[in-house]
Write a structure and sequence with these properties.
Strand order of the largest sheet: 1-3-6-5
Strand content: 35-45%
Radius of gyration: 21 Å
Structural class: alpha+beta
Largest sheet: 4 strands, antiparallel
Number of helices: 1
Number of strands: 8
Order of helices and strands: HEEEEEEEE
Distance between the termini: 72 Å
Shape: elongated
Length: 126
């Protein structure tokens, strides 16, 4: 009888650990939707970069910096919060080329994440 109880208790404990680990993995803000999309090739230059994260973020401790083909910063103004999980930043007029979007986000549960997205502005692409 004792061994059946031990096995059941061990199984419940294992399930609890798996559930807790899955919750921790979701406790970070990552881009769910980006405009422009990561890897996009655009005929028209975007006027802003917008990122919707997988959870709410703290605006004061988050940032987006967009850099052009030569590494120059082409984002301008302050990061704007459009909703709890979505931010945007305006862009200067863009020349054709490859752009990087460097982002950092502090989620509402205090986890910091960061990364890089990319897009290309090519007005003559077919």
């Amino acid at each position: 009888m004792c061994s059946k109880f031990s096995i059941a208790l061990s199984a419940l404990l294992a399930l609890a650990i798996i559930h807790a680990s899955a919750g921790l993995a979701r406790a970070h803000a990552y881009p769910a939707v980006a405009t422009p999309n990561n890897g996009a090739s655009l005929k028209e230059p975007p006027r802003e970069v917008r990122i919707q994260f997988t959870e709410g973020i703290e605006l004061a401790f988050s940032q987006i910096v967009v850099k052009g083909p030569n590494g120059e910063v082409v984002s301008q103004g302050k990061l704007r919060k459009l909703s709890d999980d979505t931010v945007a930043i305006d862009l200067k007029p863009l020349l054709p080329g490859n752009y990087t979007v460097e982002w950092q986000a502090l989620s509402v549960d205090t986890h910091v994440t960061d990364g890089v997205l990319r897009f290309t502005f090519d007005p003559v692409r077919k």
